[in-house]
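Researcher: Checking consistency across runs. Here is ArsR family transcriptional regulator again:
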Amino acid sequence: MTDDESNSEKGLMERQITGEDRVRMVARQLSEPRTANWIASEADWSHEPTKRVLERLVDDGILHRDDGGTHTTYYPDYRRQAMQEAMRLRDSGHTVEELTDRLAEMKAQIRDWKDEFDVESPNQLRGTLADETLDATKEDRRREIAREWEHLQRRIRIVGFAIREWDFLAPTTEPANAYS
């Protein structure tokens, strides 16, 4: 296949992704509650059709809706997300030893940040931004590290779960028997 043919096929695939597909992709990747407007903006689609897709996802149990605040927000079923990600890790071809090594690397990175900045959490690191001696580059770096730190904390929980439940998460061709 030539580069032109490959680029042509890639363009065709991109054109076939609908607004609804984009909303579903954005919604499944949420790590915190977001409004329909935010999701619509991320999916580059208008508000009303985005809201209809979100309501269908709520009806299907993929998302939850929270009407308790000033704005209605949507967020995924974090348990389902974690289970699906743990199954993907189990099915990825990595060994349990490789995942254990990755878990150790993530924990070591967090320990390094704790030592480097003398803080215990991402929010404490964000609190150091009040230091007037920091230049804009150092502030940006600390904000980025705080975001990455939170991401690693979530990954550590999921990877740890996948390791603990390695045998349970193994793909099977036999139906599970709940009564055995």
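Researcher: Does this match what you'd expect to see?
Model: One thing to look at in this run: The helical segments are 3-16, 19-28, 36-43, 47-59, 78-91, 96-117, 122-127, 136-164.
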